[in-house]
Design brief:
Distance between the termini: 66 Å
CATH topology of one domain: Arc Repressor Mutant, subunit A
CATH class of one domain: Mainly Alpha
CATH architecture of one domain: Orthogonal Bundle
Order of helices and strands: HHHHHHHHHHHEEEHHHHHHEEEEHEEEHE
Strand content: 5-15%
Helix content: 40-55%
Number of helices: 19
Largest sheet: 6 strands, mixed
Number of strands: 11
Radius of gyration: 29 Å
C-alpha cells in the first residue's frame, strides 16, 4: 500500500527553529540523516506517515500544524491579488501557494493589510460623500482606476449628449427603417461598409457576446443574446461608423486622463448612441408622455428590452423638450453596483442608493415583478422608485443564469406624471438612507454597518434592535 506523502518543508524548519535544534540534532532524533532532513526542509522529499508519527512522538508536534492553514492563506491571498490594482501581477496561483506554505505569518500580514486598506478606502469614500452632501469640496479620493474615472465623470453629469442624440435622430430619419430596424441596420452595414452580421452558437463563442473580424468584415454575435441585445450590438457597430465624429467630439470634451479611460468611455458613448438610434428622441419623448412613462408600454412600442427603455428614460433632457428627470441604478444580489446614471446626474448626495431597504434588493425575491415604492430620506427628501430584475445573456443548461436588478427613480414631486404614482398614493413611505455608514436612523432592522458620524453605543445593560447601536 502506498504511503501518503506530505510536502511541508518550511513548517518542519519552523518547528526545528522554534525548538532551537540544528538539522543534525533533529535528524538524530528522527533517526534520519541530516542531508535527508535538509531535502525535506527544501520540499525535495516528502514527509511520510512514519516521519509524521515520529515527529509527533519525539517532539510533541501536533500533526495539524503540518497540514494546517496554507490552503486557507492561499485562498485569502487569491482575494488580495484579484483586486484590480494587482490583477495580472501573478502568472498563476503557484506563487501564492508557496508564500502561504513557506511564510504563513507573512501571508496573514498581507491579508490584514489589504483588508485594512479596503476598510480605509470605504471610510474615505463615505466621508467624501458626507462632505459632498453638506456642500464641502473634498480631495480625499486618490488616483482612480480608468473604469472608476469613467464612472465618476459620467455619473456626475446629465445623461444627455445633445450632438450624439441629434445625429442619431438624423441618421434614423435618413435610414427610414419602418418596423424593421434590425434589418435596415444590417443592410446599411453591408451596403456602406461591406460588413456582414452572423449569429454564432455558444460553443463557437463561449466567452464573447460579439466579435468584429476586420479581415473578413464580419460581425459575429453570440446566440446567448436576446433579440433586443442583438439589435443593440448591431446598433453599436453602426453608430461607431456613422456617428464617429460626434462620439469622438464628446470624448474630447470629457477630457479623460488616460487612453484606457478614453477607450472605456468610447464604448459607453457608443452604447448611448445605440439607444438614441433605437429610440429616436422626439418619438420616444412623445410616446413616454402619452404612456405616462410606463416602461412596459414603451419597450413593446419600440421593440426593445425593459432595461433599454428604462435607460433611455434617463436621457430625456433636450432643452424645451425635457421629460421627467429619471435616474437609474443597476445592481446584483451581492450589492455590487454596475451602472448609475441620471437625467441630471445620479443623485448620489441626495439619494445614495446604498440602503438595503430599497426595492432593488427585494426584487431578487420576486423575479420579473415590478416593485414600486415611495421612499423617504432622513432629511425628508422623497423619491418614487420602480424596481425589477433583469435576465442576463442566456447560458447553457449547466450555467447559472446571471440576474441583476434595475431601479428607476425620480423625485416624488413628479410621481403624478407617471403611471407608477397611482401605486404609492395610498401607501406610506419607506424610510431609507443614502447608505448605512451615512445614515443616522436609530432602531433600523436593516442596518448592516455603523455610521461613521456617531460613536458606537456599547452598553452591556441595553441592547437595541440593530447590531450596531450608536449614541
Amino acid at each position: 500500500m502506498a504511503e501518503n506523502k506530505i510536502f511541508a518543508g518550511p513548517k518542519v524548519r519552523r518547528i526545528r527553529n522554534a525548538l532551537g535544534l540544528t538539522q543534525t540534532a533533529m535528524a538524530e532524533g528522527l533517526s534520519i540523516s541530516p542531508s535527508y532532513l535538509n531535502l525535506i526542509e527544501r520540499n525535495q522529499r516528502p514527509l511520510t506517515v512514519q516521519l509524521l508519527l515520529r515527529l509527533a512522538s519525539v517532539y510533541k508536534v501536533d500533526l495539524d500544524d503540518l497540514q494546517g492553514e496554507s490552503a486557507g492563506h492561499a485562498r485569502q491571498l487569491r482575494e488580495v491579488f484579484a483586486d484590480p490594482l494587482l490583477a495580472g501581477e501573478l502568472p498563476g496561483d503557484h506563487e501564492l501557494v508557496e508564500i502561504a506554505d513557506a511564510a504563513p505569518n507573512v501571508a496573514s500580514g498581507i491579508v490584514k493589510l489589504y483588508r485594512a486598506y479596503r476598510e480605509q478606502a470605504a471610510r474615505l469614500t463615505d466621508l467624501a460623500d458626507l462632505l459632498a452632501r453638506e456642500g464641502h469640496a473634498t480631495t480625499l479620493s486618490g488616483t482612480l482606476l480608468p473604469m472608476d474615472e469613467v464612472r465618476d465623470k459620467l455619473e456626475s453629469r446629465p445623461n444627455y449628449f445633445a450632438a450624439i442624440d441629434e445625429a442619431a435622430e438624423r441618421f434614423y430619419a435618413a435610414l427610414s427603417p419602418g418596423d424593421e430596424l434590425a434589418g435596415a441596420l444590417k443592410g446599411w452595414l453591408r451596403k456602406e461598409h461591406g460588413v456582414v452580421v452572423r449569429l454564432l452558437p455558444v460553443h463557437t463563442m463561449p466567452t464573447l457576446r460579439r466579435r468584429f473580424d476586420r479581415h473578413s468584415m464580419r460581425l459575429f454575435l453570440s446566440e446567448r443574446l436576446s433579440p433586443f441585445d442583438q439589435l443593440r450590438e448591431v446598433a453599436m457597430e453602426t453608430v461607431q461608423l456613422a456617428l464617429q465624429e460626434e462620439i469622438f467630439a464628446e470624448l474630447d470634451r470629457l477630457a479623460f486622463s488616460t487612453a484606457e479611460a478614453k477607450r472605456i468611455a468610447r464604448f459607453e458613448l457608443a452604447r448611448y448612441a445605440a439607444h438614441a438610434l433605437m429610440m429616436p428622441y422626439e418619438a420616444f419623448h412623445a410616446a413616454a408622455q402619452r404612456a405616462r412613462y410606463d416602461i412596459d408600454v414603451l419597450r413593446a412600442r419600440f421593440g426593445v428590452s425593459y432595461e433599454q427603455a428604462a435607460n433611455r428614460l434617463t436621457m430625456l433632457q433636450r432643452p424645451g423638450r425635457a421629460g421627467v428627470p429619471f435616474f437609474m441604478l443597476e445592481t446584483d444580489n451581492a450589492g455590487n453596483r454596475f451602472r448609475r446614471a441620471g437625467a441630471q446626474g445620479f443623485p448620489q448626495a441626495r439619494f445614495g442608493g446604498g440602503c438595503p431597504k430599497l426595492g432593488v434588493h427585494a426584487a431578487f425575491s420576486q423575479p420579473g415583478q415590478i416593485l414600486v415604492d415611495r421612499v423617504e430620506m432622513p432629511d425628508g427628501a422623497a423619491f418614487l422608485t420602480v424596481s425589477r430584475t433583469l435576465e442576463g445573456p442566456q447560458g447553457t443548461f449547466a450555467e447559472r443564469v446571471r440576474r441583476t436588478a434595475l431601479l428607476v427613480g425620480c423625485d416624488a414631486t413628479h410621481a403624478e406624471e407617471t403611471v407608477y404614482g397611482e401605486a404609492v398614493r395610498r401607501e406610506g413611505a419607506v424610510a431609507v438612507g443614502a447608505a448605512c455608514r451615512l445614515c443616522e436612523r436609530q432602531g433600523c432592522l436593516a442596518r448592516a454597518e455603523p455610521p461613521v458620524t456617531r460613536p458606537l453605543g456599547l452598553d452591556e445593560m441595553v441592547a437595541g434592535l440593530s447590531l450596531f447601536d450608536f449614541q
